[in-house]
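Summary of Year 1 activities. Much of the first year was spent building the evaluation harness for sequence design. The harness presents a backbone, in tokenized form, and records the residue chosen at every position. We chose the following record to illustrate the format because it has been used consistently in internal testing since the harness was completed.
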């Protein structure tokens, strides 16, 4: 697509912190460092990864080399808590995790979805993935990381206003590489925690984001979880309790369905999800491929637990360069939603009551829609984009894997 990306000017306004609050934060940080919480989970390298000087100092330079294949960086949850610490549900997935992992501030990363960007890295560590139209309807991803620290993430691309507004529902650190003038203006005013925490790659490269040599620009900006967490500390993003906005309910093993298929069509791209009842996952296929999508970071299949399709109005972005074909979305309001989990799809609706409010899902009776513990993929469609959904039928699978468990393939 070859879009020009504009660098944002750093916001220099900072919030004063009282002496008492500062002491509390420092004590909490010391305690968390003692647990290894702020950086590496279980399985992390004992020697610093490229560009990381120490746990205390964080990254000082970008890695000297990078690959598109599976990395040795961790994508799993942190070390199991001592017996005295009871696991708690992660706020964005409902999966039981170490209480300290549940406190990690959400990090939203814009990721390219042009043909030259595939295979992308980072899907399997994300709690939530949102795919929506961008220039000319060609879609783009936003991966939201919370309880897991990802390995490789990318290619990182530029900001769009409606993605910022979805990320604002979690007050996420918003990672991008430039953006549209509309998006950059919002980040300039509301990017110090008012809506999101602005993390522009033009400002923070090459220390926290960097270009790899295996791909041409603009499909070659990458980062990883250790550098993202260090960047969050650098711009003072707090690790605090995160409100749970969605409802997670494990589906009884007896309620097993088969044959659930969801297809959504974007300009030049079709996505199909096929439910695998034996493993309680959805396999994701692109453009009719016979092979499911693979995450380049770990070499594993992309297998969300929940798939939500929502529809809203998209139109040309006013006062924008017409040659860019940029869009704006009616993302605040209400619209149709199809919520698929456990092999069944229900027709409900989505709501977002304000720019900073979370995106919520309801069933046809107006009750909060129940998702199963695990990753959620959200497919956002313009009203004129085609889609099809085939619901599942009951089957008997007494040895089916429990809900919310991700099985490596």
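For this record, the design step produced the sequence shown next.
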């Amino acid at each position: 697509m070859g879009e020009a990306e504009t660098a944002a000017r750093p916001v220099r306004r900072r919030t004063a912190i009282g002496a008492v609050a500062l002491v509390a934060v420092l004590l909490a940080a010391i305690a968390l460092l003692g647990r290894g919480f702020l950086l590496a989970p279980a399985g992390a390298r004992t020697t610093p990864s490229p560009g990381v000087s120490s746990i205390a100092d964080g990254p000082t330079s970008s890695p000297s080399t990078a690959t598109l294949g599976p990395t040795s960086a961790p994508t799993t949850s942190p070390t199991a808590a001592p017996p005295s610490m009871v696991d708690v549900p992660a706020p964005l997935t409902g999966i039981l995790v170490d209480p300290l992992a549940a406190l990690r501030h959400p990090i939203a990363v814009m990721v390219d979805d042009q043909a030259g960007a595939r295979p992308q890295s980072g899907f399997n560590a994300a709690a939530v993935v949102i795919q929506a139209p961008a220039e000319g309807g060609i879609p783009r991803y936003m991966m939201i990381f919370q309880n897991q620290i990802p390995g490789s993430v990318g290619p990182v691309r530029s900001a769009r206003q409606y993605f910022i507004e979805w990320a604002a529902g979690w007050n996420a650190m918003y990672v991008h590489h430039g953006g549209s003038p509309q998006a950059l203006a919002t980040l300039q005013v509301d990017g110090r925690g008012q809506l999101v925490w602005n993390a522009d790659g033009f400002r923070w490269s090459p220390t926290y984001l960097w270009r790899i040599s295996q791909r041409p620009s603009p499909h070659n900006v990458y980062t990883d979880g250790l550098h993202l967490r260090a960047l969050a500390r650098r711009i003072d993003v707090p690790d605090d309790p995160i409100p749970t906005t969605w409802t997670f309910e494990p589906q009884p093993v007896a309620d097993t369905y088969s044959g659930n298929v969801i297809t959504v069509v974007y300009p030049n791209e079709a996505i199909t999800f096929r439910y695998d009842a034996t493993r309680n996952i959805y396999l994701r296929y692109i453009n009719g491929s016979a092979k499911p999508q693979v995450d380049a970071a770990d070499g594993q299949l992309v297998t969300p637990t929940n798939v939500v399709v929502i529809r809203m109005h998209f139109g040309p972005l006013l006062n924008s360069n017409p040659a860019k074909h940029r869009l704006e979305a009616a993302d605040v309001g209400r619209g149709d939603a199809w919520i698929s989990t456990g092999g069944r799809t229900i027709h409900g609706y989505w709501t977002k009551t304000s720019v900073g409010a979370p995106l919520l899902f309801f069933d046809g009776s107006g009750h909060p829609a129940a998702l199963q513990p695990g990753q959620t993929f959200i497919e956002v469609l313009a009203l004129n984009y085609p889609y099809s959904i085939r619901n599942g039928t009951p089957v008997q699978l007494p040895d089916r894997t429990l809900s919310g468990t991700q099985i490596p393939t």
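The first strand starts at residue 88 and ends at 89. Quantitative recovery figures across the full test set are reported in Table 2.
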